[in-house]
Amino acid sequence: MRDGGDTGLPGVVRIASTLQEWAGETASWLARCAEESRVEHGYFGVALTGGSTPAPLYERIAAPPYRHSVGWLDWMVYFGDERAVPPDDPQSNYRLAYDHLLSRVPVPEERVHRMEAERPDRERAADEYASILADTLARGPGGAPRLHCMLLGLGENGHIASLFPGTPSLDVIDRWVVPSVADYEPRDRLTVTFPVINASEWVAMLVTGAAKGPALRGVVDGRVPAARVRPVDGTLMWFLDEAAATAMRAAG
Ligand code: 6PG
To answer: Which residues contact 42 (CB under 8 A, 6 or more apart)?
Structure first.
């Protein structure tokens, strides 16, 4: 994996030659992040992302050697967003994390905080999830709950979590979790807001594949929601594969 210093992306940029190298490097980084947090804070508060990108990372860190070396009992697992579907639905972000990671490692069930986006009253579900964040995490910049690590994928339109272009959720600063609407099915969502994302100690953008090139260019040009990911007192990491990096340059 090489530094991608000349991409114009804000923060630290790492570019893997292959998807296999990407999975290995992101798993190694996440394991180090978890250990540093365990030593410094006594636990590791991590928000998982949905979509398809993180699956190779989840599977790699759930396999040896990390399966046996990571302090899973000290993980506190959250979700950055969720679709309004049951947890066993193939489109559920919880289901993705369960199938590729949580079913394979011994994170205690009571330390996995699922977003209940399927509940009829999503406003109440949003407020209750915000309370879980507030009750289990320290406060970060601006008073928002401070995740040790926020994993985020990047949509082809430049969305992150379920913060979609042109939607009111982008501008919410007085709530930490809100109902939102996607521009593809399942449309109804719950998502953390930018105050939570930008209060994180580490934010890792996980971006692979040529299809994400225009969205990456949109970040550099400040045109998409992901351009607003700027940890106030934290570090922003970009983990790209060569396909995404090449497509970003071509989109420029
Ligand atoms: C979701 C995700 C979303 C995802 C991006 C990238 O609920 O869909 O949280 O933000 O990370 O859309 O999705 P892919 O990884 O599938 O490209």
So the answer is: 74
Q: Over the stretch 42-88, which tens digit does the pLDDT of each residue have?
A: 999 999 999 999 999 999 999 999 999 999 999 999 999 999 999 99
Counting atoms of ligand 1 from 1, which one is nearest the CA of 162?
A: 10
Ligand 1 neighbours, Cβ below 6 Å, are 49-53, 81, 83, 93, 153-155, 159-162
Q: Yes or no: say if 18 and 242 are a contact pair by the CB < 8 Å rule.
A: yes
Q: State how far Cα 200 lies from the chain centre.
A: 11
Q: Helix (H, G, I), strand (E, B), or coil: what is residue 86?
A: coil
In a mutational test of the pocket of ligand 1, which residue from 48, 53, 240 has the highest number of ligand atoms less than 8 Å from its CB? 53
pTM exceeds cut of 0.70: yes
Whether the Cβ atoms of residue 97 and residue 52 lie closer than 8 Å to each other: no
